[in-house]
Amino acid sequence: MAILKTEGLTYTYSAGTPFEKTAVDHVDLCIEENRMIGVIGHTGSGKSTLMQHFNGLLQPTSGTVLLENQDIWADKSKLREVRFKVGLVFQYPEYQLFEETVAKDIAFGCKNMGLSDDEIKTRVFETAQMLGMDRELLNRSPFALSGGQKRRAAIAGVMAMRPKVLILDEPCAGLDPKGRNLMLNQIRDYQKKTQSTVLLVSHSMEDVAEFTEQLLVMSRAKLFCFEETYKVFRRADELKQLGLRVPQIASVMTELRKKGYDLPEDLYTVEKAKEAVLTLLRKGAASC
Amino acid sequence: MIYFMETIVKAEHLIFRYPADTEENQNQVPNEPILKDISLEIKKGSFTAVLGHNGSGKSTFAKHINAILLPESGKMFVEGLDTSDEANLFDIRQKAGMVFQNPDNQIVATIVEEDVAFAPENLGVPPEEIRQRVDSALKDVNMYEYRNHAPTQLSGGQKQRVAIAGVIAMRPDCIILDEPTAMLDPQGRQEVMQTIQKLNQEQGITIILITHYMEEAALADRIVVIDDGNIVLDDAPKKVFSQVDKMKELGLDVPQVTELAWELRKAGYPVSAEIITEDECLNALEALL
Asked: Domains in chain B and their CATH numbers?
């Protein structure tokens, strides 16, 4: 079932002024439930503007946004509920922390949803656990945590609402390699467990290659494509024109294939490349 | 004591811990210093990258170079000047400029060229010379055409370049950059890295770059890895990245091509340990297949 749809979605900043700029231009999308989707695009391509339409932060200049087949702007009084179903985590979310304790901060969204105290407590514990946060941290002030822990606490606050769609804008920005890996694995586990749809805005081709099933590519306010990740990476030359690139290893494998080596397509992680190269080497050895 | 000009920055057995109850103290184990015993010499004109996981002490180390922090014990010298001697502070800060992670936290003026003029003004540079320095610094970072713009209208990469221009206007011998591209997108990162390389190669400015990004560290002459307050690796990029096991143990990364080469070596195939670029990988694989 399509959880989110857009039809002719267009957004123009400062319409009618000299600073007018169309940031999203007639985008048609159909996003399914239970998916891990990467969102990529050069700076200024419209990714963030597009994301802010999904939870009703921005109202389209024209076109519609449908959540579970309902136009989210049909009844403005219901917009609040949209925000419980579509959670958006901005970059550097740790700047949003404000409560006395981590537990209270994570509970904030749930409280606004009107959930019972018991339900809130369960959700806070479960979510903290999903993100690898020690129980002990829950009673501390959010400001007494390390950077990585603060980041997790902020994300937990949105996850605890169990949104059907979770949008994360560069959740790994500023994290070290180990931290990035951990964060992405935890996000993947969260998606599998909740069977929700997760949209991951990222600039790292290596990250989206490893962790996403589909890629949504924006370019100059338009939707360039929205398809399976492996299909998108086949279009390496086109991506280059858009100011994007493919994972380092994908480049190398493509070059080898072009030179005539019998390698399968879609080798864009080290693991896949390794297996393919080893297979080829063994074949070669066997035929000697 | 005489210090030869060849060495521009010298750390001798630096030990440092943050005072209790400060924000930086959160990563520190109670009663353990964050810098445990750092000794390091950096040569004039070189490009050194400092890598380390979050909390390793790399930023803390960087802040000792231009005396933002003073060692608990041990010494830090910049061109022979002891950072713990207050009389040296002005000179040290002119010789060693620093660029931080968040572009918004470094820009103070409402017009680009006024921001770049800020430091020379504070140093008491004569007005005509300030004009010259500001123009030349902005040209060095390719932001001259934006000199009358408001910094708030600029992208992250542009702001960081303005911050770098602000440092260059002081005519430093050394620029320390503490994760300058962490908050930037790939385009912004590329712009900043190109600028840094240009300053190092064309003007001989010593660069000390604290970073997480392996592609950036790969551009340096030398990589120093700090782990848990100690220097654990110190060598040329090829030599450092080839130690894939160690890097992973330290919670760091290696370029994908380096990792592939390592995997193939593990499987018994003769592949060089020192592959860090796509081309090198391509050539090595062709030789094998």
From this structure: 7-236 (3.40.50.300)
What is the ipTM, given to two decimal places?
0.78
CA nearest to B215, candidates A206, A233, A100: A206
Prediction pTM value = 0.84
Q: Check CB contact under 8 Å for A175 and B54.
A: yes
Which of A151, A206, A277, A278 is best to mutate for the B interface (most B CBs within 10 A)? A277
Helix ranges restricted to H, chain B: 58-65, 89-95, 112-122, 127-140, 156-168, 186-203, 214-217, 237-241, 244-249, 256-266, 278-288
- For the segment A162-176, what is each residue's pLDDT rounded down to a tens digit? 999 999 999 998 888
Domain shared by A190 and A278, yes or no:
no
Q: How far is CA B55 from CA B29, B33, B39, B45, in A?
A: 10, 12, 18, 28
**Which range marks the domain in which residue A38 is found?**
2-97+162-245
Question: What are A244's two structure tokens?
Answer: 């994007």
Q: Both A287 and A175 in a single domain?
A: no
Residue of B nearest to A285 (CA): B289
| Residue in chain A lying closest to B288 (CA) | A281
What's the pLDDT tens digit per position in A234-266?
Answer: 888 899 888 888 888 998 998 898 899 989 888
Q: Do B212 and A176 touch (CB under 8 A)?
A: yes
Rounded CA separation A173/A255 (Å)? 31
